[in-house]
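Render this sequence as a predicted structure.
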Amino acid sequence: MKKLTSRSRLQQRFKFIAVAILSFLLLVAPVQADPISPQLEDQVLQIIRKHPEVILESVRVYQQKQQAARQQAQQSFVQNMKTNPRAIIGQSPTRGAQAGKIVLVEFSDFQCPYCAAAHTTLKQFMNKHGNEVTLVYKHFPLTTIHAEAMPAAKAAWAAGQQNKFWNYHDALFSNQSQLGEAFYQETAKSLRLDLKRFERDRTSKTAEAAIAQDIEMAEKLGVSGTPFFVMNGAVLSGSVELSELEATLAKVKKE
């Protein structure tokens, strides 16, 4: 009986693997140079119809693995914020306290209306708690829905190379409806930036790499929208209210 059970389980596993492979072939075939034959496609569809639970199970397992990976990344991020905040901050622009005992990391998009609303709230919060909280800005431009998110991020990064990131950052959020090439140039002029250097920096591979590093960090954390905040391990998302930030700060200070 034990041998039969083991064999049955083995067959079931092989069936799962076979269905998964065939399903994959069917899904990727349209992008291949040589499409699969109609006969093979028909066989794949028949197997899927006969065993739909295998596909659902594969999706469920995949989602579980993704969730576990996100949780692990979040735990690692939180631990680093507590033990080595400088590693999290990296080369990102900061404002507020220098000590870094309480770190508020913001993942944001300059074209996101919710980020603009949060910007107003954050200014109020930092005006009150800037002596004890270090605010860190991380770029997370949602390029699939915001055409100016990446150009704005690169322009802000370039301004930061001349120690004017926060000035440029504030101008972008305060004039969100004007985002575009003319505004980026105009803002650089108004802040008296070296325009040649500004142009060189914002179109450089270094700017792309810096922003990509922030995006990678956000994706590992499972960030799917903006704004997204982490304060010493406490997570907040969306257009947060001042009261939420105040309550989170009070909780963090007790830990």
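Summary. The longest strand covers residues 103-108. Residues 1-7 have pLDDT under 50 and may be disordered.
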